[in-house]
Amino acid sequence: MESKFVVFRLGNERYGLPIDQVERIVPAVQPTKLPRAPKALLGVFEIRGSTIPVMDARIRFNLPEASDCRNFVIVFTPQGRCALRVDDVVGIIELTEKDVDHHPSLSGSEEDPFVAGIGKQNDQLTVLLDPQHLVPNNLLSAKALQAQESSNSVSKRGSGSKKTADAPELAVA
Fold first, then answer.
1. What is the CATH number of the domain that holds 35?
2. Per the domain annotation, does 122 fall within a domain?
3. How far is residue 58 from each of residues 1, 64, 165, measured CA to CA in Å?
4. Phi and psi torsions of 82, nearest 5°
């Protein structure tokens, strides 16, 4: 059985998210900063009537900061939708179970298990991420979540449509 992953880049490294956990990819914009927010929470931005918190993937992964981040990858997490600021989106890959190494030593710490495995394809390694653990519970402030929930409830009342496509909406610049 094959699984699809949206692959993005941070520096020279490749990371992948399960495609069914990615809502869309959009060009990065300057988020509105929230007072006293954790460093990894860059702020919020508005898309189609919803307020989405933005997390810097580089800070989350303890990588050096960079100013050349071109995309936001909006993912579904237990805390709600969240945009990851990434350097660049590479594309979509398909991996079979034999292409993925799930060895426990690769997953990082038990307290923060956001690495799901390592995908291997065409001599390239991709760190596969688990969106269920990607956003720390304490990262999203009550203000960001409240803003997101209130804007989502407004947009749900106004729109009866549901996402039915297999692939995320791509708006890569």
1. 2.40.50.180
2. yes
3. 31, 7, 29
4. -145, 140
Among the listed residues 137, 150, 171, 155, the one whose alpha carbon sits nearest the alpha carbon of residue 41 = 137
pTM: 0.78
**Would you mind telling me the total number of residues written for the chain in this entry?**
173
Chain centre distance of CA 13 = 15
pLDDT tens readout for residues 146-159: 444 544 454 444 44
Tokens of 25: 């990819």
As a whole number of angstroms, the distance between CA 23 and CA 12 comes to 24
Which residue's entry shows tokens 């956003």?
135
pLDDT digits over 29-71, tens only?
A: 999 999 988 888 999 999 999 999 999 999 988 899 888 889 9
How many domains are contained in the chain? 1
